[in-house]
Amino acid sequence: MENDCQKVNVRKKGLEDAVLGQVRVMADMLLEERDIRREARKDNKASEFETVVSDATREMSQWKGAKVYLYEQYKAGEISRED
User: Fold this and answer.
1) Are the C-beta atoms of 70 and 79 separated by less than 8 Å?
2) Rg value, the chain, Cα
3) Three-state SS annotation for the chain
4) Torsional sign, CA 32, 37, 43, 49
5) What are the C-alpha distances in Å from 69 to residues 16, 26, 34, 74?
């Protein structure tokens, strides 16, 4: 019977260093991914904030336009002050 396994000698220190090196690489990748996700969330929050500000500005402009329109109607005598 023939055995396909080969006897390989590996120094404990070398194996530990190789495993530790790979763990560090993976940890760095996870940290980088975490940072990327944080930036994406921050960018998304900034985008949401910009949208809210834009909507509020647009709404204020509409109210201002309505106010000017109503004032013009009042000045022309088309509506009363109470209206």
Assistant:
1) yes
2) 35
3) CCCCCCCCCCCHHHHHHHHHHHHHHHHHHHHHHHHHHHHHHHHHHHHHHHHHHHHHHHHHHHHHHHHHHHHHHHHCCCCCCCC
4) negative
5) 79, 64, 52, 9
Assign 8 a pLDDT band (cuts: 50, 70, 90): low
Threshold 0.85, pTM exceeds = no
Task: Specify whether the CB–CB gap between 81 and 74 falls below 8 A.
Answer: yes
Contact between 58 and 51 (Cβ < 8 Å): no
